[in-house]
Design goal:
This protein is an alpha/beta fold and 201 residues long. It contains 5 helices and 14 strands. It has one domain: Rossmann fold. The strands form 3 sheets. Strands 2-1-3-4-14-13-12-9 form an 8-stranded mixed sheet, with helices on both faces. It is globular.
């Protein structure tokens, strides 16, 4: 069973409906005990990093998320769920993340004619073959909504990049951990293919 972590940040139902569309059962859970025994875990999220990490810790959901990843079970982070995996975010201050992946979260630099937040469709440039992108063509367009992006210390985790004023990291992968800055649930056929690949790992 795929379990979607509900910590009060994000449109969880849209993620669940996307899994249902591909015939994969996905359950939204909000208690740490309910994450026990999850075969696959999804950490979605939109909103402020500070509020998200605070809520994960307040509810005690941070620990089973870390344990799931440490056990090398399939994990998918989406948007804010990608950023939370890193050591620190500089969104409206400085906030410690889950510390699963070394690195930081930075805001796009202000540039003339550069729209922030980065919102809408943009293309993927793959860094290396990754299982969740099997069958997804190079240059495929996916849907983004974000003002911050991750900077991994270990470049070997980078799975894809995207251009928006700078070439930022739009997906990471390490063993059975996968995370995307874009929203697969809003990325039509490309997103559904990615979710299918994850569901069938």
């Amino acid at each position: 069973m795929i379990k979607i972590v509900d910590y009060g940040m994000g449109n969880l139902r849209s993620v669940q409906k996307a899994f249902e569309k591909i015939g994969a059962g996905a359950q939204i859970v909000s208690r740490p005990a309910d994450l026990a025994g999850a075969e696959k875990l999804v950490l979605p999220g939109v909103g402020a990093f500070r509020d998200a990490i605070a809520e994960l810790k307040r509810t005690g959901l941070d620990r089973p998320v870390r344990e799931h990843i440490a056990a090398d079970k399939p994990f998918l982070g989406i948007c804010l769920g990608l950023q939370l995996l890193f050591d620190v975010s500089y969104e409206d201050g400085q906030w410690d993340g889950l510390g699963v992946l070394p690195g930081k979260v930075l805001r796009f630099a202000d540039q003339a004619d550069l729209k922030i937040p980065h919102m809408g469709w943009n293309s993927l440039e793959f860094a290396r073959p990754v299982r969740i992108f099997d069958g997804v063509p190079e240059g495929s367009s996916v849907y983004f909504v974000h003002s911050y992006y991750v900077v991994p210390e270990d470049e070997s985790v980078i799975a894809a990049r995207t251009e928006h004023g700078t070439r930022f990291v739009s997906a990471v992968a390490k063993n059975n951990l996968f995370a995307t800055q874009f929203h697969p649930e809003k990325s039509q056929s490309v997103g559904l293919k990615l979710l299918t690949n994850f569901a069938t790992l």
